[in-house]
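Handoff note, outgoing to incoming analyst
You'll be picking up this chain. Sequence as last confirmed:
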Amino acid sequence: MSVAPVSFRLNGIERTLDVAAETRLSEILRDLLWLTASKVACGVGRCGACSVLMNGKPVNACLVMAWQIEGADIVSPEGLDILPETRIVRQALSEENAFQCGYCAPGFVTVLVSLLHNDPDADLSQIKAALEGNICRCTGYHSILRGAQAAAEAVRAERSKLT
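Most recent structure output, in case you need it:
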């Protein structure tokens, strides 16, 4: 494996690392930078536990290689507080007791924050579509969807105060 520098922005901070081009973003975050909120579960992009934002869109960090993040803006679950919707999403999910073990929670939060940041008017069908790539093995999803809907309503209310 040849190693080369890759430069990107992570949680608002410019970073340059020497890594092999085929190193997964999930490995960069967890193994090199010790940012462990993004989880590795399936490793093949089917569960969403490793979700991060890349250039404002949710991606599975296990499917993104180092060569793909050159110049990218990455936000890991640890950096989500830079978006105002994060507090609202976390609170709404907590109030609905959305998660049991919590392993999948950072991925769900990341995707919901992205959705509501870009589309505060998202309805239930849009929420379900956004969350299709996230798996929770503990719940029946009802509490997660209730929390997501409550978050959407709270984001809309918050934005209406600002106008």
